[in-house]
Structures are given as C-alpha cells and as structure tokens.
Design goal:
Elements lengths: L2 H16 L55 H9 L3 H9 L4 H5 L7 E2 L5 E5 L4 H6 L6 H12 L9 E4 L13 H18 L3 E5 L1 H8 L5 H4 L4 E2 L12 E5 L2 H6 L4 H15 L7
Parallel strand pairs: 2-3, 2-4, 4-6
Antiparallel strand pairs: 1-3, 5-6
Bound molecules: uracil (URA).
Uracil binds next to helix 6.
Amino acid sequence: MQAGLREALLAALRLQIEFGADEALEAAPLDRLAARAPAPAPPEPPPGALAKPALAQPALRSAPTLPLVTTPAAATAALAATAQSLAELREAIANTDSPLRDTATNLVFADGVPESGLMMIGEAPGGDEDRQGKPFVGVSGQLLDRMMASIGLDRRQNFYLANILPWRPPGNRTPTDGEVAMFLPFMLRHVALVRPRHIVLLGGVSAKALLRAKDGITRLRGRWHSLPEPGGEGVAGLPALPTLHPAYLLRTPSAKREAWADLILLRRTLDGEVPPG
Ligand code: URA
C-alpha cells in the first residue's frame, strides 16, 4: 500500500475512534438472533417497462434568502471593494474602526493556501487565535485539522481558512448581527479575491451569513448550496457546503455522525464523484 494512502486511512480510522466509533455498526440495528434468509431477488420488470433511471443527484438549492442589511455594511462594503489583493484587504480590515479591534490582541486574517481551491469559513477567533493571529489554532481548530486529515487534507497544502469576524469578540461570545453585517462585505471580498472552487461554511453564523439564510445549521448542512450575491460582490454561484462547527462537535459528540457524512460528501465532491449540487 502506498505510504500516502496508508497515512490517509490511518487518519480516517483515528478520527472514527475519536468520534467514538469503536465497533463496526450498520445504520439499522442488526437482529443477531434472527435466522439468516437470503435476500429476495427483485421482481423482474414487465416486458417493455422503462429502465430504472439512474439515481438523481440532489438539486443545487439556494437557501431561503434574507434581505441584505445594508446600513451597517455600507462603509465596509465600499472599503472592501477597493482591495485588489489579499494584502490590501488585510490592510483595509486592520484600518477599519471597530469596538472589537479595541479589545482584541491580533487581527486574525487567514491561514492555509489561498490557491488550493478550497476555502473554509468559520465564525470568529477565540483566545488562542487572538494570541497567535491565526484562525482555528485552538482546541476546535485542532479537531478540525484531524477531521480534514481524515479525508487526506492538510491546511499547509490543501485548504485555506478564514473567519467572518477577523477580531475576537470579548469573552468569546457569539458575534452580534451588527458585527456580522459589518464584516460580511470584507468576507465576500475575501472570497471574491480567493475565488475558491469549493467553500465549506463552519457553523451556523458563517452559513447563515454567507447564504443569507433564515434556517439554522442543522437544516442547512449536508448538501451543497450556491452562494447568492445581492450586492454584485463577484461570488454568485460558488458552491458552499455548510457543516457543523468543530466547537459544537466538542460539546455534542452525538453530532459527529452528521459531521462525518459532510466530510465524506466533501471528499467525494473534491474527487469529482458527485457534483457540488
Ligand atoms: N472558532 C471559529 O469559528 N474560528 C476560529 O478561528 C476558532 C474557533
């Protein structure tokens, strides 16, 4: 077996064990006492019947949309539009006045490889990220790295990471709607500059903001959506997969099953086995 393949399989196995899957189980409970009967053969189609159609791929669905909140975003939208590179965007964010900037230690702009084709968007930096100036370096980031390793992806080569909020909210509180509205134009510009082929939205704050969705993450996750673009930001139609935030998975181990299904969908999409829609 190739060394790379072996490593990838071991990473996937390690994640399964960490997720609590220490036994091979089926989706439906197995009655081990029931007599084993051979499965009945499917009935023959009547002569002349149409062949069964191939399994339909799920349709690319746009999430229900919310009107864009323009007022708090107007200033940052104008500023974001002037950034012609990631370096200029970083500069613009660093120079934008915000109460969050006053309480944070470091700007947390991004990490990973912008040219990789895969961009992951989280919510906001926590304490570790604030100290190091890099997204997803704390406990939930470490879980994210192990999850991505389980499908053969490494942030140093295969993906790029950023957050809706570039500054840590004090006490790691959830970002307010106003903060999200203020920083969303920067994120849209960020996406437009990176131009990823696929996007993963980590958690409800990121998914709802980027998809302009009313639904929560449990309804949005598990299928590809198409990014809307009410303001001409240059991101329309990019495929985005919402999934559960790793911090939520740390608090809710039973949700790891759904997260694993999303990882598999991501891997199969990157491999071209299923279209992002
Ligand atoms: N949670 C996030 O959403 N982003 C980070 O960078 C860290 C934790």
